[in-house]
TrEMBL record, chains A, B:
Provenance organism: Albimonas donghaensis
Family: Belongs to the class-III pyridoxal-phosphate-dependent aminotransferase family.
Gene3D superfamilies: Aspartate Aminotransferase, domain 1, Type I PLP-dependent aspartate aminotransferase-like (Major domain)
PANTHER family, per database record: GLUTAMATE-1-SEMIALDEHYDE 2,1-AMINOMUTASE, GLUTAMATE-1-SEMIALDEHYDE 2,1-AMINOMUTASE 1, CHLOROPLASTIC-RELATED
Cofactor: pyridoxal 5'-phosphate
Lineage: Bacteria, Pseudomonadati, Pseudomonadota, Alphaproteobacteria, Rhodobacterales
UniProt xrefs under InterPro entries: Aminotrans_3, Aminotrans_3_PPA_site, PyrdxlP-dep_Trfase, PyrdxlP-dep_Trfase_major, PyrdxlP-dep_Trfase_small
Protein name from the UniProt record: Glutamate-1-semialdehyde 2,1-aminomutase
């Protein structure tokens, strides 16, 4: 995809005017060779690269595509609001309507604040937790991703020790480790961040764990600290509510983003009444936080989530893919570990410590028209059909076939050399 | 605007589901009574509130409205891209085209990185400056606004001392103060943030100052620190280039936002080659940073800026307003201080230490159809016509008239009591 192609030409131009030609989570730097960097269009479940190849897209823009790219009702709501007014000198009525809709939908929430990046919501949650009782210590899972600001970025270049001075780490899902972290925080314990389940790159995922969730709630209650669920990635794919509602535990704050506007730029911090005063004392803002068009898109997205079986559908699609891959891998003699909620599937190969099998398999599936990730959880969306799953399984079947032939000659992915 | 009105009803509903009913820079909490919080629509130079009142809007969404709300060419570019694909699994070709357009337009820039909030760009600049030579100290003007993250928010609630541990303040525009700050930073001096001129609320503005700019450049060069111009607010209203190009000084990094997509959610960090390697080493990202529709809007906005006399027009409009207000204030016996670039006018009253004159005058002008600010710099836009200036001056004339009658009975604005 790099030589004699439009993607290659664009990469070349990009290298001149963008550091490394690309940055952030949509960079293909860690993906197998052959993955296109630039896309011409997207519709429903599919994306088309700039050289005209079409893929069934299991990355869904790394989450935002919940209902299908360009979902007509959402797009119509966005366009209508854009024409009336988008970024104005004050918000539109849609801001109030959207806050009401989110508070209605999410059991623990009494109020909402909107922003742009998922990281805006997590940073606001941190500041709110500190403002709540004037405490400083924030507990975060080791390796858990909560954004890319100095305090939470996984890459520490350009970051000072002080940026992370009051963070205390614990092992995700481990109540003893969490209790120990809480003890270390002592009476300076402001807030605890959790993801609803473990969702890290290159690792098996878990599922929401009732015992851990109840323990986390109890530890926060005993300390008078705020419990924060970061639902930016998992929100609306696990539940029509905060993801921990599935295990009966309600946080004080939850962070939302990605899907809530089906790709429109909007994120949110939701909170319970206990955190309302603190949230009202902090100063947070952004040039486009009050823009009405993304809010109109989010309001329509939430309506569809509420009134249709889209969540059940995208879970069923994820389960169909999982079942198909399990059968294929067994037939071809490979072991797969398929983990996490079905709507956010993670697929890793057994006996693949340097990921050469996964990388080769994904690269082959891509050539056959299925866009998968060898290291990041994937996402299903409600525009996917049984036919898309069938078509994906044809691609992965061809990929297993190829992998069976080539497995002995595979080398470790050079993209992962810096990691190893 | 609070009782028996749609705005009042929305505020009441908002208070239930949003802390304080509203937050951030578009909250009317510090504005005079009568300012509507919610707007139904905007077109060209005008906004209409939810009760149907129309205003000539001199706040321009606090900057983003450069060419007029809903400018047809920009809107068409945005809608066309939205239908092709917006937030996908990778960027579109428009990302490269936009980076090329910005690098072509801004003299000091060799590369660009896009993000959402102005504060994303300033935070990326800070991290890049620290990554450049592994130093930590960041120099910022006392009271200068560079965003609302923990490291730079003007309100310290929920913020720790460590969040600001490596900031060193200097007095804006004061070379001695800057040199002293640089000495204190010593060999840990990573970067210097400046706004192109002093632009603070409740204060007279300045203009870009060649001597200070040259001195800042020299101090950074001598220390091997990066010079960062925060052009988020002033960009494209002062020059078709970095605002300090008007005084012949080129920074290493510049931060852009607000206007570059005429209200579309996009911001940017631009840099010179000296900072390219550092910018390529940091990890920064956001769910919607690679969305194509705002980039298409920005590309079209930049084309219009480049190919039309819009910048000259909005400067002329600002000058016409300024001249009109000067004549009116003299005629009515009030002293006005009108400061800053004409396209970003600041209007403050002489002999008005508690702002009662300015607040009453703005409130009266609002009732007559002109939306002004008594504490924040305003903005002209290219959709404003001579007739809009005339109409605005009718409103401000009526406001001066009223102010002459009521001045003796005015009280200090209660909104400012927490400030005083």
């Amino acid at each position: 995809m790099t030589a004699n192609s439009k993607d290659g030409d664009l990469r070349e131009r990009a290298r001149r005017v963008i550091p490394n030609g690309m940055y952030g989570h949509e960079s293909t730097a860690r993906l197998p060779e052959g993955y296109p960097q630039f896309f011409a269009s997207g519709e429903g479940a599919r994306i088309r690269d700039v050289d005209g190849a079409e893929y069934i897209d299991w990355m869904c823009a790394y989450g935002p595509n919940l209902l299908g790219y360009g979902q007509p009702d959402v797009l119509a709501a966005v366009e209508a609001q854009q024409r009336r007014g988008d970024t104005l000198t004050g918000p539109g009525p849609v801001m109030v309507e959207l806050a009401e809709a989110m508070v209605d939908m999410v059991s623990h929430a009494d109020w909402a604040m909107f922003c742009k990046n998922g990281g805006d919501a997590t940073s606001m949650a941190m500041v709110t937790a500190r403002a709540h009782r004037g405490r400083r210590k924030i507990l975060v899972g080791t390796g858990a991703y909560h954004g890319a600001s100095p305090w939470n970025t996984p890459v520490k270049v350009g970051v000072t020790e002080e940026d992370r001075a009051h963070l205390i780490q614990f092992e995700e899902g481990d109540l003893d480790s969490l209790a120990d972290a809480a003890r270390r925080a002592g009476d300076d314990f402001a807030g605890l961040f959790v993801t609803p389940y473990r969702m890290r790159t290159f690792m098996d995922q878990t599922e929401p764990d009732a015992e851990f969730a109840r323990g986390a709630r109890r530890i926060c209650d005993e300390a008078g600290a705020l419990l924060i669920v970061d639902d930016v990635r998992s929100g609306l794919r696990v539940a029509r509510d905060c993801s921990w509602e599935t295990v009966g535990v309600r946080p004080d704050l939850s962070c939302w983003g990605k899907v809530i506007g089906n790709g429109q730029p909007i994120s949110a911090l939701l909170g319970a009444d206990i955190a309302r005063e603190a949230a009202g004392k902090i100063f947070v803002t952004g040039s486009f936080w009050f823009s009405a068009a993304p809010m109109a898109g989010a309001l329509e997205t939430l309506r569809i989530v509420r009134e249709t079986d889209c969540l059940e559908r995208l879970t069923a699609i994820g389960e169909a893919l999982r079942a198909g891959l399990a059968a294929q891998s067994e037939a071809f003699g490979f072991g797969l570990r398929q983990t996490g909620p079905a709507a956010l599937p993670m697929v890793l190969f057994e006996d693949d410590p340097d990921f050469r099998l996964g990388y080769a398999w994904c690269a082959a599936a891509l050539r056959a028209g299925a866009y998968l990730s060898p290291y990041h959880n994937m996402f299903s969306n409600a525009a996917m059909t049984e036919a898309d799953v069938t078509r994906t399984l044809e691609a992965t079947g061809a990929a297993f076939e190829e992998l069976r032939r080539t497995r002995e000659s595979l080398l470790p992915p050079p993209q992962l050399a810096p990691r190893a």
